[in-house]
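Suppose a colleague, Dr. K., hands you the sequence of a protein chain of 188 amino acids and asks what its three-dimensional shape might be. Before reaching for any lab equipment, you can write down a predicted structure in token form. Begin with the sequence itself:
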Amino acid sequence: MLKTEEDVIKIISEDKWMLEVLKAVKSLDLPDWWICAGFVRSKIWDTLHGFHNRTKTPDVDVIYFDKENIDEKIEKNLEDQLRSIIPDIPWSVKNEARMHIVNHLPPYTSSVDAISKFPETATALGVKLDEKDHVILTAPCGIDDVIHLEVKPTSFFIETIERAAIYEERIIKKNWKSTWQKIIVHHI
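The predicted structure, expressed as tokens, is then:
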């Protein structure tokens, strides 16, 4: 069903709603932008579970990387701009050049570096459109876990007891298994 990155790109490219969302974000012309996490993971898991209707997502995570403008107010303004384009989406915009401060970590070098440090490998995914509106996928931790319906911590989240605890708390809070029964959750 889904075996390669090309397969993932294909299912996203064929989803009119996802393309509309991607085009809205592309229109902001943000540096090093991606829509990441659940936007991508949920599409993969919905497909693998044979769901005909999209599962509800609590937010659409848009990230970008701009070291020159790290004021959080800019992110809120960008969310407002996106709501003016597509009002019924719960937009969440974050400048990853700022988020290391919030997360008490060393600075990220790019958006993809930040994605690689997300808690779960199945969530460490991002998509965007190139100049010709073709879907591009980034998966710094690979796609094996997400397409095999496995939830595992990224290597970054098993480095310290504190991060491992955050991973475990997220597993409980997110309760993904209640929506996608076939997933296998690995604990640290």
